[in-house]
Amino acid sequence: MKGKHSQPWHHTKRLHIRLTADEKKQMAEMAKEHGLSLSDFVRVTITRSKPVMPKAKPDRELFIRTLAQLGKVGSNVNQIAHELHRERIVGNGHHVPDRIIESALSSVKALSNHLITLLTDGAQG
InterPro entries under this entry (predicted)? Predict the structure, then answer.
């Protein structure tokens, strides 16, 4: 069922069906195995349409969370570098060689790039 109304924000109608607890559990497990929400799983199964928003599989979700945490680490290292630089200009800071800070930032960036590569390669394969 393709066409101009296939965007997720056009899904405004609801379909109510009755299931046993076991049927609903089984459908939810199948949806999870396919990395889909229950609504997308039913929609894709019945209409053969594309999923609206595939859920990240656990390993991909872990990569995404790790990448987010790594971004926070990089931001913290950057803030530390700026503060050390500011204190050095004022004259009351400790001297940390720029190469150490640059190395830390470079390592965070390299690891982030590696994770992004793994994430995008995994999405294509």
Answer: NikA-like, Ribbon_hlx_hlx
- Domain limits, the chain: 8-47, 58-124
Side-chain half-sphere of 109: how many Cα atoms within 13 Å?
Answer: 8
Please give the full DSSP string across 6-73, using - where no structure is assigned: -SGGG----------HHHHHHHHHHHHHTT--HHHHHHHHHH-PPPSSPPPPHHHHHHHHHHHHHHHH
Task: Give ∠ CA 123-70-103 in degrees, rounded to 5.
Answer: 115
pTM here is 0.42
For the stretch 43-98, pLDDT in tens is 888 887 776 655 666 676 777 788 888 888 888 888 888 887 777 776 766 667 77
The gap between the terminal CA atoms of the chain, to the nearest Å, is 26
The token duo for 113 is 């790039």
